[in-house]
Write a structure and sequence with these properties.
Number of helices: 3
Shape: globular
Radius of gyration: 12 Å
Distance between the termini: 36 Å
Structural class: alpha+beta
Largest sheet: 3 strands, antiparallel
Order of helices and strands: EHHEEH
Strand order of the largest sheet: 1-3-2
Amino acid sequence: MTTELFDDAIWITAQDYLSKVRISKQHFYRLVERGEIPSTRLGRRILVKASALEDLENHTTKEKKI
């Protein structure tokens, strides 16, 4: 699997993502492994598309309205 790092996406670190989301590190890594969180590795660092955080916020907001 190849991921374009230099498309118009904004990338954030795993730590930044976890600081904004209430999930455990272990659960985060499982979601990344399953491909449920769009991410890529840069050396030992995992980078997450910032849009994934926005998508999660939108999904959470929709669930609260129901």
